[in-house]
């Protein structure tokens, strides 16, 4: 649970700078409002459909969906359904109150990452009023593009707070470039307006917005060791920064693909 809260806290920081970066980028240009925010422009697409594979990652390629919650579905007993990525766990949802928040009436959610091409991926936050992730309250997707691999970092710390991590990782750069959002109910719209300050979406309308070029940097390692991969899927160790590629693991997120 500590790791999940840390991971979601980092996401809040990422979201908070979108508007600031966009305002700086557009200070001398005329923009067309998207989702009621004049600092966003309308984008043609912001895919969150699984496709392709990101190759060259130390130690294996990355494809499909990866999530910090898959491990709970594998272990069982946490109301996480890995076949749909539906999280029907009130403890998880309520723990997000001070980070990403959630719409009033939310009882289930989908929160994950998905590879969308050889150089793009997306983050998904979707909330539902039923326990089976069927009746949507709100959805926000962030798209990342221009992923570039800067080679291998070595000599990384292998033990942090009692957890073991790989000594090498790929050095990645990429951009947060788009957002796709929809509030299907008034409660969903209220959540989106709180999450993305400055937006003013209309209930039932989906928006696809260009949010500028917001650079991100990360260390990533995909563990495809045979014993773990067969039982749990690949582990994805992921340490992200907004300023430069991290020089070492600090408190990396551990996410999982599915076997």
Description:
There is one protein chain. This protein is an alpha+beta fold. It has 5 helices and 15 strands. The protein has helices at residues 2-25, 70-75, 90-95, 186-195, 226-232; strands spanning 41-42, 53-54, 62-63, 65-66, 80-81, 86-87, 108-115, 121-128, 136-153, 159-160, 163-164, 169-183, 206-223, 235-241, 253-256. The strands form 4 sheets. Strands 1, 4, 7, 8, 9, 12, 13, 14 and 15 form a 9-stranded antiparallel sheet that branches. Strands 2-3 form a two-stranded antiparallel sheet. β5 (80-81) and β6 (86-87) form a beta hairpin. The longest helix has 24 residues, at 2-25. The radius of gyration is 18 Å and the shape is globular. The protein starts with a helix and ends with a strand.
Task: Give a summary of the structure in a few sentences.
With 259 residues, this protein is of the alpha+beta class. The chain has helices at residues 2-25, 70-75, 90-95, 186-195, 226-232, and strands at residues 41-42, 53-54, 62-63, 65-66, 80-81, 86-87, 108-115, 121-128, 136-153, 159-160, 163-164, 169-183, 206-223, 235-241, 253-256.
């Amino acid at each position: 649970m500590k790791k999940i809260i840390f991971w979601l806290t980092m996401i809040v920081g990422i979201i908070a700078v979108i508007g600031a970066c966009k305002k700086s980028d557009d200070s001398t240009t005329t923009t067309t409002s998207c989702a009621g925010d004049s600092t966003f422009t309308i984008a043609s697409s912001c895919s969150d459909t699984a496709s392709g594979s990101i190759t060259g990652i130390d130690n294996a390629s990355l494809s499909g969906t990866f999530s910090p919650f898959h491990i709970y579905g594998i272990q069982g007993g946490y109301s996480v359904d890995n076949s749909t990525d539906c999280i029907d766990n009130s403890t998880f949802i309520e723990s997000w109150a001070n980070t990403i928040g959630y719409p009033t009436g939310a009882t289930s959610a989908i929160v994950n990452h998905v590879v969308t091409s050889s150089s793009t991926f997306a983050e998904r936050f979707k909330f539902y009023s039923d326990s089976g992730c069927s009746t949507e309250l709100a959805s926000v997707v962030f798209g990342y593009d221009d992923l570039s691999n800067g080679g291998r970092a070595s000599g990384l710390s292998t033990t942090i707070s009692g957890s073991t991590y790989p000594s090498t990782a790929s050095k990645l750069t990429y951009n947060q470039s788009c957002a796709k959002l929809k509030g299907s109910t008034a409660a969903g719209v209220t959540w989106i307006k709180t999450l993305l300050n400055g937006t003013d979406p209309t209930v039932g309308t989906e928006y696809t917005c260009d949010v500028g070029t917001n650079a991100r940097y990360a260390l990533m390692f995909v563990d495809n060791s045979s014993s773990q991969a067969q039982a749990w899927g690949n582990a994805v160790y992921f340490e992200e920064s907004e300023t430069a590629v991290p020089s070492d693991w600090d408190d990396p997120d551990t996410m999982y693909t599915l076997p």
